[in-house]
Design a protein that fits this description.
The chain has 406 residues and is of the alpha+beta class. It has helices at residues 2-8, 21-42, 47-65, 67-84, 90-93, 95-105, 110-131, 135-208, 215-241, 260-273, 293-313, 369-380; strands at 277-281, 319-326, 330-338, 384-390, 393-401. It contains twelve helices and five strands. The longest helix has 74 residues, at 135-208. Mean pLDDT is 78; it is low at 245-254 and 341-366. It catalyses: ATP + protein L-histidine = ADP + protein N-phospho-L-histidine.
Length: 406
């Protein structure tokens, strides 16, 4: 109810245009002029008629600041006058038409706005049929159709460019939102990934030469600096990613990813240094002609992220496996790896269990954005991605139908 009330109290539905105090003053002056003209044209009149005139003028002035409350008050005044009075004066008879024009020009829904005019005409015609026609009724009807119809026509002409401006702003905001998500994903998939790989390589070099007293301090200093840079960037990316969520990525506007073969080779080397093993099956299926080029690019991004995760989170002496399958209509992939306790093999495998596992050591290498970015890419292609952890293994499975994106 509070949301409906707030909507009814809005002066406009547009975000690109707002009424000014000069416009409110102009509407109040017009309302006063119409009221005085109507009183002068039909004087003398009963006290009820004068009251209806004043209420109609006040309602028209009010509708500039509060369109719907003013329109409802003015229409109620006109309807009451039609039923009670013998001859309805110019005001409030014309008020529903003018209020409808304001509602239309302010971007409110046309159907309820025009219903005020339709209901006024229905009451007026019914009253003529029941109580007999008089010249005043026909004069009011003609004036309403001429002046009120003209006001509504002008309102429609005003509404058209305002609607176009509103659509342009909405399109611009959607474009900026897609670009923001694209920047977050691209930075994570390139800069953060490469910096993390540099840290892991430095740790591997330090462990490979434990007796080199001159090399160890240099590597430690470099690793600390890179870790700090990675954490700062991850914090910025998390802040950017949390502004809004659930939007689709622009699946075409991305740079070429790093070759998947190179990512797999580096991951195999890193895993081999801690006694782990990486198995890959079905890699050749990424080259089948049925996969559109833009879709293939995004699949390489997703698979590269999964392989990088396995290189960071596979337990020593563990096993990692990537399996890719396709039936010609879709592509399915499964990435799974053994996970273990944090802190194994010194600082090389400082990551804990797996992404999103909640183990403290995990945050040293991950912001949680990688899998979320992969999920968005897969869903943008019309597919689905699921993650599960159990019995010492972390498994990610995704499927992308080619028909949904062809």
């Amino acid at each position: 109810m509070s949301a409906i009330a707030a909507n009814l109290m809005q002066p406009t539905r547009y975000t690109t245009w707002r009424p000014t105090w000069r416009l409110h003053l102009a509407h109040a002056s017009l309302a006063a002029l119409i009221t005085l003209f109507s009183i002068a044209a039909t004087w003398p009149m009963s006290s009820i008629a004068v009251l209806s005139e004043i209420i109609g003028g006040l309602a028209l002035a009010l509708s500039s600041r509060f369109p719907w409350p003013g329109a409802l008050l003015g229409s109620a005044s006109a309807w009451t006058a039609t039923v009670v009075l013998t001859d309805v004066p110019f005001s409030p008879g014309i008020i529903p038409w003018l209020c409808t024009a304001i509602l239309v020009a302010r971007g409110f829904s046309r159907m309820p706005a025009y219903s005020l005019v339709v209901f006024s005409l229905v009451i007026l015609i019914a009253d003529i049929q029941w109580n007999g026609a008089s010249p005043a009724w026909f004069t009011l009807l003609q004036v309403s159709l001429f002046i009120g119809g003209g006001a509504i026509t002008v309102a429609e002409l005003i509404r058209s460019p305002r609607d176009q401006a509103e659509r342009s702003l909405h399109t611009y905001r959607e474009s900026m939102e897609r670009q923001r998500l694209l920047v977050v994903t691209e930075l994570h998939d390139t800069v953060v990934r490469d910096l993390t790989h540099a840290v892991m390589t430095a740790e591997q070099a330090r462990l490979a030469h434990p007796q080199d007293a001159a090399l160890a301090p240099e590597l430690d200093a470099m690793t600390a600096a890179v870790r700090a840079a990675v954490e700062q960037m991850r914090h910025a990316l998390r802040a950017m990613s949390d502004i809004r969520g659930g939007e689709r990525l622009d699946i075409e506007a991305t740079s070429a990813p790093r070759p998947l073969e190179a990512v797999i080779s580096d991951a195999a080397a890193i895993l081999g240094q801690r006694g782990a093993h990486l198995e890959v099956e079905g890699l050749e299926l990424l080259g089948i002609p049925v996969i559109p080029p833009g879709v293939r690019l995004q699949l390489l991004r997703v698979l590269g992220e999964l392989v990088s995760n396995m290189s960071k989170y596979t337990a020593p002496q563990g096993r990692a496996r990537l399996v890719i399958e396709s039936d010609g209509r879709s592509l399915e992939a499964m990435a799974s790896n053994d996970v273990g306790l944090p802190g194994q093999v010194g600082g090389v495998w400082a990551g804990a269990g797996a992404p999103g596992s909640g183990v403290p050591g995990y945050d040293a290498f991950s912001s949680g954005l990688g899998l979320e970015g992969a999920r968005r890419r897969v869903e943008a292609l019309g597919g689905s991605l699921s993650v599960s952890q159990g019995e010492g293994r972390w498994t990610t499975v995704f499927s992308v139908p080619f028909q949904a994106v062809s």
